[in-house]
Amino acid sequence: MRVLIRADASPTIGSGHIARCLTLARALRRMGAHVAFACRRLPGHRLDSLAAEGFETFALPDGYPDEDPLQAIESLLPWQADIAALGQALEQQAAFDWIIADHYGLDHHWQTAARRWAPRIGAVDDLATRTYSVDLLLNQNLSGTPEAYASLLAPGCQTLLGPRFA
Fold first, then answer.
1. By the 8 A CB rule, do 18 and 46 touch?
2. Is 17 a catalytic residue?
3. CA 143, CA 154: separation in Å to the nearest integer?
4. Rounded Cα distance, 96 and 89, in Å
5. Is residue 41 within 8 Å of 61, Cβ to Cβ?
6. CATH hierarchy code of domain 2-128
7. pTM for the complete prediction?
8. What's the pLDDT at 67?
9. How far is 2 from 48, CA to CA, in rounded Å?
């Protein structure tokens, strides 16, 4: 199984998204999966440490046209620009089985577009503030309740909610 994780780290974003995805990536690798990371080359990115652990990495640009560098971390990224950058990074790569996004700035538009590289899309989330177009959603926090996501997920989306999935 081939899995691509899309997450970022920076002083503003912090490194929590990468840290929790790294835990997931290590577990997937122990199960025999090939895991890669696609991350923006923001100040404080973790691409080097991910590569040092033996994960394949794809560096995305640190900025996109029309992006406000001072925007809040939960503000949406220009998803078309991020998808285009991901497409360039993944050129000549074999398809993935899963893409897992742990990013407050990526919503259902990005998730739908990312299906060109993987038939299944997952999201790691702890806000429940946007619509998702995913096959699997993970929220390992106490805030991860079915009620929080009831109007945000498509029918058939599998959920892993609550601390037992930490």
1. yes
2. yes
3. 19
4. 13
5. yes
6. 3.40.50.11190
7. 0.93
8. 73
9. 20
